[in-house]
Design brief:
single chain
Length: 191
């Protein structure tokens, strides 16, 4: 299992100087560690020694070195895993954005709930999403979670608030008097 080539047999098409040059210019830390493991292997070190030197389990180091022997020096970069394909196509997502921008039909606040949105997606596109993924989908489409501002049940009406503000504006300001009193006291103390 641990019988990988060493020294000049490891990466025969790539010189030690080339690997060191790649290591010096590499910016990604994981790729840099993989290149360091390749340098050590090219110098003839065992997998256990390399694992100790790069502070990584030997199974991981073995995997790196095995990938180097199969893919060459490009094995320093990890291959992006594509993941699961999206349930909604790009056209369906664009249609969903248009629907969302119109607002919910039966909600005066203009904000969609995740429950309403799940029902809409199921009805329109025949796709089922869990509640958490509905929010992930919204964020990926450029929307954010918003909640209507809570109002206290004893909150006064808009007319009462306007009347209160009008009364506040009628009171004479006392700040001018305080400034005068303070100035008089300062004159007395300085005299």
């Amino acid at each position: 299992m641990w019988n990988l080539p060493k020294k000049h047999l490891f990466l025969p098409d790539t010189s030690l100087q080339r690997i060191r040059s790649l290591y010096a210019h590499e910016k990604h830390p994981r790729a840099k560690t993989r290149l360091l493991a390749a340098i050590h292997r090219k110098q003839g070190k065992s997998i256990d020694e390399i694992a100790y030197l790069v502070s990584t389990p030997r199974d991981t180091v073995y995997g790196w070195l095995r990938r180097f022997t199969t893919r060459g020096i490009d094995a320093k970069d990890s291959i992006k895993q594509p993941g699961r394909p999206a349930q909604l196509t790009v056209k369906q997502q664009a249609a969903l954005v248009r629907i969302l921008e119109q607002g919910p039909p039966h909600n005066r606040s203009g904000l969609w709930s995740s429950k309403e949105l799940r029902a809409l997606i199921t009805k329109k596109f025949k796709k089922t999403y869990v509640k958490q993924h509905v929010w992930r989908l919204l964020v990926s489409l450029g929307f954010s979670m918003q909640r209507p501002r809570k109002r206290h049940y004893q909150r006064p009406s808009d007319e009462e608030i306007a009347l209160f503000k009008k009364k506040l504006g009628e009171k004479p300001s006392t700040t001018g008097r305080k400034d005068l009193l303070w100035a008089r006291r300062m004159r007395r103390l300085s005299a």
